[in-house]
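Sorry, explain these tokens?

***
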Amino acid sequence: MALLSPALVMLFLGTFEITQLIRVKTKMALAAQVIQDMVASQNSATASTLKIAYSGGQLVMAPFTGAGLTAAIASVTFNSSGAANTVAWQMLEGNATGMTKSAACTLAARMSLGSDSVIVVTTTYAYTPVLSYMLGKNYLLTQVTFGRPRNTGSISGPNTSPAGLTGNC
């Protein structure tokens, strides 16, 4: 029994850590979907409405901290032949790294139906295990979601997009 107890404790703690990591990944995927859904339901996006959508994503992360969540939110428009044409606007929340124009267009190209647009949300979350000696490192999790505007062909965006991250693909 004395030899088996440490192994059982390690197995239990390892299972706990892996379960937490799976929960964080699931929550982060849901947060990305919530942000995309909230933006897609708008007729136009301002910096404040995008901040509210991001805050909604942070709330979804509970019981984990929402402070580690970052989001890059972009609108990609398509020309009449269905090719990704332009990154109309992009907003970064939580110190996110922006999507390059080519990355945003490539990601959105799968959703093209012609002359329309797609909202692309890329979220990242830095997860530090509770018992870091079990899994032994930090994890940077990433999730990408897509959605079409619901009320209009394209959503007009804020005028404060980061330089170099908008324009023709």
User: Anything to note?
Assistant: Residues 3-168 form one domain. The first strand starts at residue 69 and ends at 78. The beta strands are 69-78, 84-93, 117-127, 139-147, 167-168. The chain has one domain: 3-168.
